[in-house]
């Protein structure tokens, strides 16, 4: 099978290169963050307007799919990073103690919200189910992440998390725009249905903003400085391995349980992703004043960049498969 890098993937790679040499900082970073917030809210607004009431009900009540995604995020992923942390006692030059702690922290983080849903939408997957699962993951992740981290590493002094603030952000930025959009579906649904390509381009624009903003933040935070080269190399390799492992596990479990291809896309993207947007603020509380803070957050920064690039490529492939399956189904009717 010939491998071809499409234009959107090249644009994402360009965003990483641009962020590496010209990361957005200061007031420009604040403006980009505000733009991203508005763009994500509009993304949910449009998807709310585009989806029928029955599609939303089916997504919210798809409890078997939600249990699978939650298990991947908060059960299997934490267990998978335990052997990685054990390397700190075997090869401390390659896996310093703080880097091992960082992988444990990566394992207990909630799923990424905006990119998971944007990729599911790009893939023509089960968007309502992705919205429910990703939003719930972040709401409960505010409480589960510190608890699971304490369980894994027996740390103390975790501080307090602004759970209500996080819940408010999810409601205002994700659920409220979705609900308003759905309420306006009688007026907007037809237009959005006739302009699906325009919506797909908007999804891609939102993802590009997420990539550039997230990678800029990583670079400014010292991703490429003050860390042993071998530690960075090992972190990148392990992040690739973990992402590949959980995408494979997600696909195998979905197919074993008999879910549709649309459901598979939602599980793969929601169940394998980890949230940088939630991870860094929580890290500032959990590891406040820790001298190895840079190494602790390295895994989530690396994993985030890898997951957005791999996710973009995979979303395009899922889109082709789902569209082909849909066309074949219409042909046989």
TrEMBL record:
Keyword set includes Transmembrane helix: yes
- Family annotation (Pfam families): SBF_like
Asked if Phosphoprotein is a keyword of the record, the answer is: no
Which InterPro entries does this one have? Na+/solute_symporter_sf, Put_Na-Bile_cotransptr
Which residue ranges run through the membrane? Answer: 31-51, 63-82, 102-122, 129-150, 170-193, 205-225, 231-254
Superkingdom, taxonomy of origin: Bacteria
Q: List UniProt keywords, sorted A-Z.
A: Membrane, Transmembrane, Transmembrane helix
A GO cellular component annotation in the UniProt record: plasma membrane
| Gene3D superfamilies per the UniProt record, alphabetical | 1.20.1530.20
Which N-terminal stretch is annotated as signal sequence?
A: none
The name this protein carries in UniProt is Sodium:proton symporter
